[in-house]
Amino acid sequence: MNVRLYVWQRATAALMLPLVLLHVAVIFYATRRGMTAADILARTRGSVVWAALYGTFVIAAAIHAAIGLRNVLIEWSPLSERGAGMFAMTFGGALLLLGLYAVAAVVL
Amino acid sequence: MSDARSELTVSLWRGAQQGRYKSYNVPLRENQTVLDVVTFVQRHLDPTLSYRFACRVGVCGSCAMTVNGRPRWTCRTHVSSVAKAGRLEIGPLENLPVIKDLATDMRPFFEKWQQAKGAFEPSKTRHDAIDAIRPDSPARIAADAAIECINCGICYAACDTVRWNTDYLGPAALNRAWTLVNDARDAGNAARLAAVAGSGGCHACHSHQSCQEHCPQALNPTASIAGLKRRTAAAYLKGEIKA
Q: Could you tell me the residue ranges of all domains in chain B?
């Protein structure tokens, strides 16, 4: 990992730390209150705040995970640095698409 | 020695990269070091045994080997502290090519010192006044904490990241770079920070801390590498180095 990837990975980790706590709190809140899918969607649909929070979370997670996966592949697989980078980029891109699709499904 | 045994059973690695362990019986002596055991085998049992040593007193860093699975400086390791049930297994250092028996090829280790810009770059000539370095300045304290490396290669042999990533510069070379980064007299830091910020540089370290666990000089290369991570990240964000 070079310094550019290091800075991106640490920065996305710092960004995700409060978002993970928020995400866990939301899960507890929703399940404790016995909220149905309809209840949740009623609150999230059209909400710019939920879209921004979870959109940021998804983007940060996709970048963070892709850099981490690249490192694991370089160290533990026969892939070259370039091959590991391409695989990780594809994985990060897939995470980003799936994540944003899920965010869109609850806020649009 | 309280042990009632009179002999040690010693398994020594014989061969090059491919080889096998061969057993020898060596008389047990008081205050015997692991290097004494290897020397006994070479002088009395098998003169074809190859190994490396020089000073015998923990200064030169030549005699590091793998002893019962751990990298150690054999001249300062007493048999009584490492033998298990009267047995010793001694092999060459890990993570380096084996030349023969217990002697490894140290070239990759020292080439990485050069890649990490581990050589001092003078900032003055002999005609300039000598810099006055305050021993209590933060930079000098950081350099002093890491300066006593004897180049034995034990940290390099103990490092998981070195094992997994052949491009990784390793704890010793990065620790050396950190001492020079903190040396007010050195003029080579721009190139040095760029050298240690690349893909095999300080950011590859996972902070497993095997280097500081095994270092016979009780240095902490992990802390030095953490310092390099902070310093290179700051330099990158200021645009002083490129990735």
A: 7-104, 107-237
CATH fold for the domain made of B7-104: Ubiquitin-like (UB roll) (3.10.20)
- The average confidence (pLDDT) of chain A is 94
> B107-237: which CATH architecture?
Orthogonal Bundle (1.10)
Half-sphere exposure of A75 (CA within 13 A, CB side): 19
User: How long is chain B?
Assistant: 243
Structure-token match 């050589």, residue found: B119
Instruction: List, for residues B129-175, the tens digit of each pLDDT value.
Output: 988 899 999 999 999 999 999 999 999 999 999 999 999 999 999 99
Domains and CATH numbers, chain A: 3-107 (1.20.1300)
Collect all residues of chain A within an 8 Å Cβ-Cβ radius of residue B161: 75
ipTM: 0.83
Alpha-carbon distance of B121 to B123, in angstroms, equals 6
CB contacts, 8 Å: A3 with chain B: 197-198, 201, 203, 232-233, 235-236, 241, 243
Q: Is the pLDDT of residue B3 over 70?
A: no
